[in-house]
User: What shape does this take?
Amino acid sequence: MINIKLDNKLSITSDSNQYILREMKEGTKDGEKIEIYEAIGYFGTLSGALKEYIRKCLRESEATSVKELIELNARLEEKID
Assistant: This one.
């Protein structure tokens, strides 16, 4: 099974049937901080999971111009190549 960390919060894991894009969040258990992983989506292909990673990063970016969004998209695509 794979476990690929994409950035500080997002990662891709797998099981025998699918790829899972998930986000790490912090929570508490018995007063101690713990990492909680929340599934963003389930994909039949690695390519599908990576495309959703790019879409999510673009949607949540703080870009204020089309140029910034295009540059971010290029950086993300280069990162996953």
